[in-house]
Amino acid sequence: MSKGYLIAHINIHDKEGFEKFREMSLPIISKYEGKALIRNPNPDLREGSNSGLVIVLEFASLEHAKRFYESEEYALAKEVREKACSTELILVEGI
């Protein structure tokens, strides 16, 4: 079974709000067996103009990633994130 990945590009405009989101989301990521692979606030941007924080989470499968993202617990954290940041987020299956 292929792993599932959540890839997020986040532009933070409220650091306190983002920190609250981070504190809320860490236990939820663990609950859904996710693991942070990348958390980089200064990526080497080669194309485009979006240079915010990059996060990559790995899950056992794409279904695990979907269950995490669609969970009631994450919905609460997501509301906090949406007030503190603008985000581009995708879920993808590994090869």
Reconstruct the topology from this structure.
Layout: E1 4-12, H1 15-31, E2 35-40, E3 53-59, H2 62-69, H3 72-84, E4 85-93
Antiparallel strand pairs: 1-3, 1-4, 2-3
Helix pairs in contact: 1-3
Helix fraction, binned, reads: 40-55%
Query: What is the third-level CATH name, the topology?
Result: Alpha-Beta Plaits
Give the name of the CATH architecture.
2-Layer Sandwich
Order of helices and strands: EHEEHHE
Radius of gyration: 13 Å
Can you describe this structure in just a few lines?
By secondary structure, this protein is an alpha+beta fold.
Task: Give an overview in words.
- It is a single chain.
- It is built from three helices and four strands, in the order E-H-E-E-H-H-E.
- A four-stranded antiparallel β-sheet has the order 2-3-1-4.
- The chain has one domain (4-43, 52-93): Alpha-Beta Plaits (2-Layer Sandwich).
- With 95 residues, the chain is α+β, with helices and mostly antiparallel strands.
- The longest helix has 17 residues, at 15-31.
- It is 40% helix and 33% strand.
